[in-house]
Amino acid sequence: MRCGGARRTIVGMTEHVPSPSGGLSRRQLIAGLGAATGAAGLLAGLPGGAVVAGSVTPALAGRTARLPQVLQPPSADLSYIGIDSFGFSTPLNDRYSDDTSGTGALMPPDRLTAPLSLPAGSVVKQINVAYIGTPGVQLWRRRLATPQEGGPNPPAAVFSETAPDQGGGPRAHTFDTDVTIAADSTYSLRMPIDVGESIFGVTIGYEAPASATGALGLVPIDPPTRPLDTRQPGPQTGKLQAGEERIVELGLPAGAAGAVINLTITGTETDFGFVSVYRAGIPWPGNSSINWSSPELTAANGVITAVDDQGRITIRGGEAATHVVIDLVGALV
């Protein structure tokens, strides 16, 4: 707020008003914090000073013109993402935040939280934090692949440290970590924090997952072929019944790992049913590739599916019978 031309920052129940030029307030101290420089967000600043390319021009002669450089230099072997102070919130979404003072909890004790989105297989190597006080620095993981009855698994901390006390004013610190991002989980940064403490921002240094080798490419089948039509005479003739599984040889090129097909159902029975398509040789994964909701329906759907090492798929009937037609339009090799 402003009162008589002065800006006030309310933290908890206390108003902090910038002091006259003869003294340095917390606001003035923080105001000298420069923008992040370099991928790891190296910080430099001085109350009343101007930051130029990571160095500081002193506002007052004879004063120390730098903050401790405690972040590790950016590593050429790592990739970096940044989370600004605006990216953090408390569990109740209460926060104060601006470009100068960063973010801090309004009521003690509390925590600031921000989602962490990295590609699966990444390895977090650095957590670089710019802060005031001694906030906690935590990385939490929630597994989603095997939820407990009634809800997802509770999150658990996979990294937890406390920022070192380096005296008053803005500080920065690099935490070395070794956390692999799992594909079956979500991750968040949690910062236990008290009134008077701030988080200006965080950069995460991580090893990106290895580039995919042998990436699949689409080979069109032109003209498309029809490996299955249950309306026609042959070993696969007759409607696919509820719960029935059939293995279908698609006639793919050698070495194909997947197929792009057009899946058609016709002559459906009852008011509800579905057909599943999946790689041959595995149990039904519980999927549905096409559904119907009325009898004597004809419908089609495009399907991308994995195949076994012989280029085969399984089709499975669900709930009711239907004729099935498969047209092969592409191979993934």
General description of the model:
By secondary structure, the protein is mainly beta. It has one helix at 26-31; strands at 2-3, 6-7, 9-11, 14-16, 50-52, 55-57, 79-84, 96-98, 102-104, 110-116, 123-132, 136-143, 156-162, 171-180, 185-193, 198-207, 218-229, 245-249, 258-266, 273-279, 290-292, 299-306, 312-318, 323-332. The protein is elongated and about 85 Å long.
Tell me about the largest β-sheet: 4 strands, antiparallel
Q: What is the rounded Rg? A: 30 Å
- Mass-distribution shape: elongated
Count of separate structural domains: 2
* CATH level-4 homologous superfamily of the largest domain: Galactose-binding domain-like
Give the SSE order as H and E letters: EEEEHEEEEEEEEEEEEEEEEEEEE
Defining key terms:
333 residues; Jelly Rolls; 4-stranded antiparallel β-sheet; 1 helix; 45% strand
